[in-house]
Design a protein that fits this description.
single chain; 223 residues; mainly beta; Immunoglobulin-like; 2 domains; 1 helix; 7% helix; globular
Length: 223
C-alpha cells in the first residue's frame, strides 16, 4: 500500500489555462503539511482541531513540554510527552487533546505528516534522517492567537523612559498565572532611538525561548 502522492500530468499541447489549473491542483495534491484550525483551553485540558493534507492522510500528533523528561519545546523525535498516529482517511478534520497541563510550563503539539511507501513502510516527514521537514506546530501558551481567538498568555510591560542614552521598555510573555520570578518568561527589550522614530527589538539571551524571569529583565544580555 503506497500513499506517496503523484501529481497530475499536464497534457501535451495543453492551453495556458489548463497548465495553470494543473499547477493549482498539483499544489494541493502534493502538499503534505497539516493545518491547525483552532485551539481551546478547558481548565487544564488543551484542545486542538486540525486538518490533514490529502496526500498525507495520517498525522503523527507529537506532544512535548518543558516538564521534566518531555523533550522541551524544540522537536525531539525520541523524548516527548505523547506521540500518537491519527488516521485521517475517513475525515481529514480531527480533534486532539492534551490533558493535565501545568500552568508554569510550556507545551507544543507537532503535527507530522505520515505516508506509506510501496513496501508499506511508514514515512514520517519530520526532518530527521534526511527526510523533508513538513511539520506544523502550535504552542500553549500561544505566542499569537489563531483567527477568532485570544492569545493564551500572561503579558507584562515595563516602560523606562529615563534610560540613557535611549528610552527603553521591556515586554514579557508567559503562561497564564506564571509567577514573575519563575524562569518561564520570554522577554524583549525595546529601544526607542532618541531623536528618531526608529525602534530596536532584542530578546533576552538572544532568543525567544521561555526560560527567563520577568523580575530579572533589567540584568539580562539582549541581542
Amino acid at each position: 500500500m503506497s500513499t506517496i502522492a503523484q501529481g497530475l500530468r499536464t497534457p501535451i499541447g495543453a492551453s495556458p489555462w489548463m497548465r495553470e489549473l494543473a499547477t493549482v491542483v498539483n499544489t494541493e495534491l502534493l502538499r503534505r503539511e497539516a493545518t491547525a484550525l483552532g485551539t481551546r483551553l478547558d481548565g487544564t485540558t488543551w484542545h486542538l482541531r486540525f486538518k490533514a493534507a490529502l496526500s498525507a492522510p495520517w498525522v503523527q500528533v507529537h506532544v512535548q513540554s518543558t516538564e521534566v523528561g518531555e523533550g522541551g519545546v524544540t522537536y525531539d523525535a525520541g523524548t516527548f510527552r505523547t506521540s500518537t498516529q491519527v488516521d485521517c482517511r475517513a475525515d481529514l478534520v480531527q480533534d486532539v487533546s492534551v490533558t493535565g497541563l501545568l500552568l508554569d510550563h510550556r507545551y507544543v503539539i507537532f503535527l507530522i505528516p505520515v505516508q506509506y511507501d510501496g513496501a508499506d513502510l511508514k514515512v514520517l516527514y519530520d526532518g530527521e534522517g534526511g527526510r523533508p521537514d513538513d511539520m506544523t506546530f502550535t504552542t500553549f501558551p500561544a505566542a499569537t492567537a489563531l483567527p477568532g481567538e485570544e492569545a493564551l498568555v500572561a503579558l507584562r510591560y515595563d516602560d523606562v523612559p529615563g534610560a540613557s542614552p535611549d528610552p527603553i521598555a521591556y515586554k514579557g510573555t508567559a503562561v497564564p498565572g506564571a509567577a514573575e520570578g519563575s524562569a518561564i518568561w520570554s522577554v524583549q527589550r525595546i529601544t526607542f532611538v532618541a531623536g528618531t522614530e526608529d525602534i530596536t527589538i532584542e530578546w533576552a539571551d538572544g532568543d525567544s525561548d521561555p526560560d527567563n524571569t520577568w523580575t530579572g529583565r533589567a540584568g539580562f544580555s539582549y541581542s
